[in-house]
Amino acid sequence: MEFAWLLLFVALGGLRGARGLQEVDVFPSRGGDIRDFTVAARWVYVVTGDYLYQLNHSLGLLHSLTQRGEYMASSIRFNRASEGGTSTFSVNTLAPLVERNLLFTCGALNSGYCETLNLTDITQIISGEDFELSPFVPKGISVGFVVDVNGKSYILAAAEGMNETRFGDYPKKSRIRLHNTHDGQVGKLLSAIDGRDSPEIVAHAHGVQFVDGFQIKSTIFIFSNLNYDAPKVRLLWFASKTSKTETLRSLRGATLVCCEGGKARQRLVSSSVIPGDQPVLWAGIFTDHDVTITELAVYDVSPPTEAVTYTDPDFGFKQEPWKGDVPITLRPRRVLLRHRFMTSVLAVKLNNWLIVFIGTGDGQLLKLTVDAKLQAQCLSVIWKAPDDRRVFPKMHLDPVGRKHVFVAVRDKLMRVPVSQCVQHSSLQSCWNARDPYCGWCGALTRCSFEDECPSSLWLSVPDDLSQRRMLSHSFQEDAEGKITLVVFTHLKRGGAPANFSCRFDSSVGVLGGLGYKYPECTCLLPPVIAGLRVSVTLSLGEVDVTEELNLLNCSGITGAPTPLLCSQCLAAGCGWSNGACTWTRSGALNMSICQGLQTGVDSLPEIFNITPSEMSFYGKNNAVLTGRNLGHVIGVRLQGHLDCSAKDGKRRMNITVSNLKFVNEVIHSHTDERSLQFESLAADRDPFSSTVTLRVANHTLACPTAIRYLPEPQFTDFISAPAADHLRLTIEKKSDELQMAPEDLRVKGVQGGEDYDCVITKIERSSGTDFITCVIQISSDAEITAVKIMYGSQTKVLTHFDYLKLLLLLLVVPLIVGTGVGVYCWQKRSLTARMNNLIEVLEMDIRNDIRQGFVDMQTEDSDLIENVGAIPFLDYKHFAAKIFFPEGGSLMTACLKDISQDPRKMEKQDDGCGRLAQLLREPLFLTSMVHTLEEQKSFTIQHKCTVASVLTVALHRDLGYLTEVMEQLLRAAMEQPSNGQHKMVLRRTQSIVEKVLTNWMSICLYGFLRESAGQHLYFLVSALTQQIAKGPVDSVTEKALYTLSEDWLLWQAQDFTAVKLQAVFMVGGDGQLSEPLEVEALSCDTVDQVKLKILAVFKAKFGFAYNIPLRDIRLELEQGPGVFVALEEVDRSSEVIGEVTMLNTLRHYKVPAKVTVKVLSTGCHPPLVSQSSVKDDQNFSVKYFHLIDPDVCEDQGMNPERKKLKLKEVHLTKLLSTKVAVHSYVVNLFRGIWGVGPGKAPPAIKHFFDFLDGQAARMKIADPEVLHIWKTNSLPLRFWVNILKNPQFVFDMDKSDHLDGCLSVIAQAFMDSFSLTDTKLGKHAPTNKLLYAKDIPQFKQEVKAYYNCVREQQPITTAEFKDFLLEESRKHDNEFNEPAALRELYKFIHQYFTEIEQKLEHSGAPAELKEQLKQVKNQFDGQKSCSWD
User: Fold this and answer.
1) What are phi and psi of 918, to 5 degrees?
2) Each residue of 984-1017: pLDDT tens digit?
3) Residue-by-residue DSSP string for 116-173
4) Residues paired with 154 in a beta bridge
5) Using CA atoms, how far apart are residues 353 and 255, in angstroms rounded to an integer?
6) With 0-12 CB in 10 A as exposed, 13-18 as middle and 19+ as buried, what is 1179?
7) Model pTM?
8) Is the torsion defined by CA of 1174, 1177, 1178, 1179 positive or negative?
9) Is 674 helix (H, G, I), strand (E, B) or coil?
């Protein structure tokens, strides 16, 4: 029955077409197809046959690790090799352990092998071990994931058995084990030992395939296929006990049966747990031996609660006997979908909705919307692979934002958006999309995701998608016979509260409203209703919805009591009672009352069949739906796909088209033919291509492959040979690519002026010649004087040579050959001379490049900064706001007090905020609240950072108290049992207190930053910017010749020369010009780059910036006295290669040195032709190029300089010369940070380092490395690296992507200086590591001296440090809007109020404190009620 309902949704338009599919991020792997992938923390890990990749969440490649190399059995080592290697580590299991920053990879290498990698950087290999954790054959199937057993982390490995007898006389059986995750556990890393035993669950027979597994709370779930005897799907439960043995002995089992009312599906293809609380729901795709027939079903897989002794018939603990109880049978709660060839499933919860993403065997990603009653609602295609490849069985939701799904197809990983809300341009289309992800944002006036609509009304689809209109209405009749019109809105209201009101306009005037309360409005109707037109306008905040109603008289809807009449009655707003249409007296109505009117049984629509089963969604098809109770079906929308490919060559055109029955005609771009069969053209010129398109209804579809046309065939000679009763001809033809077949040719022999048919028997090829053999039924002694060869519309005639011609040919040929040999020898000598000349020029170019690089390194100086003017420090509150809220947004703005803000709109301190501020001063409450929030699974890292920052703002006036609470929370975090790895403490920002520590450091070190290190940082940034500008910079990609990052190196740079310009500015309104400024530019600079250099010289000379934006500035070149010509980025003279335009440069305009350039403002002097900046074009990087040539074919004869060979390795010296130029600024900055000097370390650093020393003593940690790492994680990693990489947090400046790349190299060197390990670098090491490799040892010594100096410094007393904090609070008092921060914090308290209350109860909090919390809640709830009223 569920399937019938799904087909009904298809018929009612629930299935939307595949057109308008969204763009996706793609990662194309190499080294074979994707074997597995997983998502952990902020990264994606992908394993192929030859490589393991680490990607960011946008699928950008971070690290790759080859899986090929040499296995050293004697030392159990796997030495990777970038090329070659006789062994391949075939990974079958990826198991990330985020808490310990580890990634376990296991698979086949000689036998079983596992590696432990750094989760942050997979190229850091921690260990490698011989362990059979997963199958030791390359294509073995296994399930492996990390589980928690009594507070300890293990890898649960369910490995498929092997058929070969690698060890012993019997093949391996499938088994389940628990493996260690660190050396501190019994048996050390990856061991399965528990005490003296090695517990495991073993399958009693072969043919077991594990499909999926996961853990929910204390229960572990394993799903498998049993392929022996009667195939079946098994579910195993394990309870997390005190040990490995007890956990595995807790085995319980069930058999999953799919599905009701049809053929049994005995094989599980893919599965996904459905997020949520009890019961545990799970979705699985089932099939049988015919893998194209699949069903998606939902089960309740909650483990049994009764305590009974259980023995499984298929799996046993170690080698227990083959016996067992009958497992319980689980049947589906609902079959959601029957569809062809489903291969993967992913279930996601969104409010009350279940969103199911489904991959298919032909490369489609489907999205199925399911309501709270597990009724399938809307099915849509959101993405389709271009080559119809099968979707990988696993899919993952992107945890960052939860708006993308990771999908693997063959050798590519895709990041597909879950919805494309922005494509809906109106409220109506947004609502009609029936997409729970999308809603109408009142503030943005567009369709958006809910989190994109902060602090505003967000209108989405209702929980009941059966409603087809945003407004519906009904009538109600009271006891006095008065009729009331009731209007319901089916817009679900979310986001910020909004006022709700209604207005009723009718053909007889405005109707009086009886009242309105979301979601309904009522008004009293006049006595005469029939034919009355009413316009209803509902206002929700700033959104208005208007509906025109044509009212009917309910008593006038009469007829036989049929379902159709009942539906018409209810659609008119009337009621149905006793087989007749009447005025309703109460409540909303339901269409379900119309069921069973004819047959007396359930009359839900059922569809048995759709003929044909394949249709075109481009229209012009007839479909027949066969079923019963289809009276309400009003339309059909189906989807499919159609593509085509043209086969090259052959005179008879073969167009291979899927779903050809829907094609009306084939359109060929070089002919007027418009039929499914057409003749190809004659190629009277060089080879060329032609496109083919298909006409389907009113749509034109392009074929992906063009038709190639080749020159005509060349027939050279024929020979006749007599046979018994016929004559055989052999025709010679030059070999070509036409692939002519016998049916493409007709041959006739000419004898005595008459033509005789020659039947072709074969076509052979040999030594560049085709031999066509044919037979003429004629006397064998007949003499054939000519042959006619017909193909297409052409006829070629060959005649025989006579002996005289042959003799003449024999005389002429030697002469021609001799001449040809002479010409060849001459051309060979000439060609050799030209090649030698080209090689000599090439060598000279490379020699010059190397010499210039050497000169740069030897002559480069660090005197870059001439005059940077005043350092543009940001004031404290804007600096702090960027640290607290790095992503900006409305919350950052709300938490600042700014002069530009309207005082009336600023948050006011009310009683609720006052009580909450007072409550936060209670340490027990504050620590309990923090611990409670972090225990919630729905509380994300983003939420943690937000709470930490608003907490910092709220307590900014009392930094002393904030410091006490922070230290209390840090102690608790360090002493947690899960922090057994002490070196990992404070490494990442994964808790509220870690973000508070970042904010606290920023507050306390702002003065030190402005007085000391900030100046060095600004000089470094200025020096880098100037050094980059000294050489060519590609305007499109921002790559430069002078850089610190190999990724940003412009190694394709062409030759350039320096050009000095005289820049003059318009002053006054009468056209007067300023004194000229000398500006150094390059011949390869674009017009915009010249503008930037002019403005930089202006600022350096006068100490302030030119006050006109770059896009409003025009340049004019002086070509004569008083004659100026405009310089533009692109104009009619711009060079075009293919479809890509080159940006104009000074070389393009032939600008000489010392020429005058006038700087104008377009506001005062508008250009003759309006031209916006080409960089405003969203396809700028595709349409334009600058110094890096586009990847298109061109005639390089016009541009000989582009022929020069450019080698990236030659230009790597530019990295070193750039390093030399800025090295003094780097050293000054580093020593400014870790140099103590006479002023000693800042108080905050001394205090916090002493706190860490004291904590280590309390915890009895004697390892000095632990303390060093704690200090490094808390200060350099948490504060200084953030400042180094983001100078825009400190200064009023913009940071380019190129500058970010250079600063990342410096930041890496900075952090390497704090490392305790010595890394040996080879020739294949990354350049950013090699660049500062010789400087790092010296920096490390200085860092150790810095830490020792701080430790030996006179301790700062508690009173002195409190005075310091008090002074910091006082200096920046009244700069933050504490009420806004308190209100934001209360949102989280309100969301988890019950949990916080329970935590206080368990903590033994006094009753007064709990009462204070309730008073805060009552105060805020009262404010909401008042503002609503």
Assistant:
1) -70, -40
2) 777 766 789 989 999 999 999 998 988 888 899 9
3) EEESS-TTSEEEEE---SS-SSTT--EEEEEEEETTEEEEEEEE---SS-SSSSSPPP
4) 147, 180
5) 28
6) exposed
7) 0.50
8) negative
9) coil
HEC letters along 1343-1392:
HHHHHHHHHHCCCCCHHHHHHHHHHHHHHCCCCECHHHHHHHHHHHHHHC
Tell me the CB-side half-sphere exposure of residue 980, using CA atoms within 13 A: 12
Measure the CA dihedral 169/171/175/178, to 10°: 50
| Cα–Cα distance measured from residue 5 to residue 624, given in angstroms and rounded to the nearest whole number | 17
Phi, psi values for residue 1111, rounded to 5°: -70, -15
- DSSP element (H, E) containing 1302: helix 1297-1312
Three-state DSSP class for 1059? strand
Q: Which two tokens stand for residue 62?
A: 């971070």
Half-sphere exposure of 609 (CA within 13 A, CB side): 4
Residue 162 has pLDDT above 60, yes or no: no
Amino acid symbol at 1048: W
Instruction: Kindly state the tokens that stand for 1288.
Output: 């825009």
* DSSP string over 183-226: TTSTT-TT---BTTB---EEESSS-EEEEEEEEETTEEEEEEEE
| Helices and strands in the chain: count of H runs, count of E runs | 27, 73
pLDDT digits 0-9 by tens, 786-830: 999 998 778 899 986 555 566 777 777 788 888 888 888 887 777
Q: Provide the β-strand partners of residue 153.
A: 148
CB 356 within 8 A of CB 345: yes
Identify whether the C-beta of residue 303 lies closer than 8 Å to the C-beta of residue 236: no
DSSP letter, residue 1140: E
Whole-angstrom distance, CA of residue 895 vs CA of residue 949 = 10
Calculate the average pLDDT of the chain: 81
348-398 tens-digit pLDDT: 999 889 999 999 988 899 999 998 888 887 788 898 887 778 899 999 999
Other CB atoms within a 10 A radius of the CB of residue 475 amount to 23
Q: How far is CA 1103 from CA 483, 1065, 1100, 1295, in A?
A: 78, 16, 6, 20
Bridge partners of residue 876, in order along the sequence: none
- Token pair of 1034, please? 């590609």
* 3-state class (DSSP) for residue 543: strand
The strand ranges marked E within 1068-1112 are 1072-1073, 1077-1082
Q: Does residue 478 sit in helix, strand or coil?
A: coil
Token digits of residue 995: 């973000």
Yes or no: say if 171 and 164 are a contact pair by the CB < 8 Å rule: yes
CA 489 distance to own-chain centroid: 36
500: number of Cβ within 10 Å: 18
Burial 867-878 (b: 16+ CB within 10 A, else e): ebeeeebbebbb
Backbone angles phi, psi at 840, to 5 degrees: -65, -40
Alpha carbons 1061 and 682: distance in angstroms, whole number = 58
pLDDT at 1170 over 60: no
Residues 618 and 697 sit within 8 Å (Cβ to Cβ): yes
How many whole angstroms from its chain centre is CA 12?
33
User: Strands across the sheet with 334-340, in order?
Assistant: 267-274, 281-287, 293-300, 334-340
What type of residue is 1175?
K
CB atoms within 10 A of CB 693: 16
Nearest CA to 233 out of 258, 198, 206 is that of 258
CB atoms under 10 Å from CB of 682, counted, come to 12
Residue type, 1330: L
Distance from the first to the final alpha carbon of the chain: 47
Report CA torsion sign: 88, 43, 33, 294: positive
Alpha-carbon gap, residue 485 to 468, rounded angstroms: 19
In the chain, what are the helix, strand and coil shares in percent, each to the nearest 5? Answer: 30, 30, 40
The SS3 assignment for 596 reads coil
Q: What DSSP designation does 1033 have?
A: B
Cα maximum dimension of the chain: 127
